Amino acid sequence: MSADTTPEQGSTAPSRTRPPSGIRRHRWLLGPATLLLLVVLVRTFLVTPFGIPSGSMQDTLLVGDRILVSRLTAPADLQRGDIVVFDASQGFNLRVPERGLFQTLVEAAQSIFGKGQPTDYIKRIIGLPGDHVKCCAPDGRLEVNGVAVDEPYIAPGAVPSAMTFDVTVPPDRFWMMGDNRGASADSRAHLGDPGGGMVPGEDIIGKVWVRYWPLGRLGYVDQGQLASVPAAPVPRNGE
């Protein structure tokens, strides 16, 4: 008798397993879900769209401008003059509203198109960790580490600050100010709060990269670094 066997008459070869009908019906969702996942990953780790909601950064950024914020710059690599988006809830002692699951999902979808959270602020870094920032020098300019600084991004004739202050920025914190100094709720407005209005580096979402809307203002956003400022003094032992 042959070792080979033959299928019995009338038998059929087994058919390939098909996915359940429920999965087949929803297979069309795979493409949009994959695209959404890619967008979320890009937004979380590479670049984030952001819309300008107020005039606190005029005339550098106008209400309605749409920008891309790079998330690739570490806090240690930021410079004075960089424009950044940050979560101000801790640094500015803001109350974070409670949100349910539905509201969280809606806000996540809106964020893809540049709508930030109510606690997302955009300002310019004036003081790095360890800097001594003062308003004002005898000539009316801001003073950083003993040097009066030029600020070409402020509108002609505008004063650097109507509020006087004299602060030393703690380690891993940043002193933030808007370009429209008369209409910016920035670090100055929170001097009396816990933390003194200084923004933790871990709360910085990213550095402003380009403006993509309106098309007539398309291009890189000038950061205006304060290159003439000396480095912050190194604390002595015990200080």
UniProtKB/TrEMBL annotation:
<dbReference type="Pfam" id="PF10502">
    <property type="entry name" value="Peptidase_S26"/>
</dbReference>
<feature type="domain" description="Peptidase S26">
    <location>
        <begin position="27"/>
        <end position="213"/>
    </location>
</feature>
<feature type="active site">
    <location>
        <position position="123"/>
    </location>
</feature>
<keyword id="KW-0812">Transmembrane</keyword>
<feature type="transmembrane region" description="Helical">
    <location>
        <begin position="28"/>
        <end position="52"/>
    </location>
</feature>
<dbReference type="GO" id="GO:0009003">
    <property type="term" value="F:signal peptidase activity"/>
</dbReference>
<keyword id="KW-0645">Protease</keyword>
<keyword id="KW-0378">Hydrolase</keyword>
<feature type="compositionally biased region" description="Polar residues">
    <location>
        <begin position="1"/>
        <end position="15"/>
    </location>
</feature>
<protein>
    <recommendedName>
        <fullName>Signal peptidase I</fullName>
        <ecNumber>3.4.21.89</ecNumber>
    </recommendedName>
</protein>
<keyword id="KW-0472">Membrane</keyword>
<dbReference type="GO" id="GO:0006465">
    <property type="term" value="P:signal peptide processing"/>
</dbReference>
<dbReference type="InterPro" id="IPR000223">
    <property type="entry name" value="Pept_S26A_signal_pept_1"/>
</dbReference>
<feature type="region of interest" description="Disordered">
    <location>
        <begin position="1"/>
        <end position="23"/>
    </location>
</feature>
<dbReference type="GO" id="GO:0004252">
    <property type="term" value="F:serine-type endopeptidase activity"/>
</dbReference>
<dbReference type="GO" id="GO:0005886">
    <property type="term" value="C:plasma membrane"/>
</dbReference>
<dbReference type="InterPro" id="IPR019758">
    <property type="entry name" value="Pept_S26A_signal_pept_1_CS"/>
</dbReference>
<keyword id="KW-1133">Transmembrane helix</keyword>
<dbReference type="InterPro" id="IPR019533">
    <property type="entry name" value="Peptidase_S26"/>
</dbReference>
<dbReference type="InterPro" id="IPR036286">
    <property type="entry name" value="LexA/Signal_pep-like_sf"/>
</dbReference>
<feature type="active site">
    <location>
        <position position="56"/>
    </location>
</feature>
<comment type="similarity">
    <text>Belongs to the peptidase S26 family.</text>
</comment>
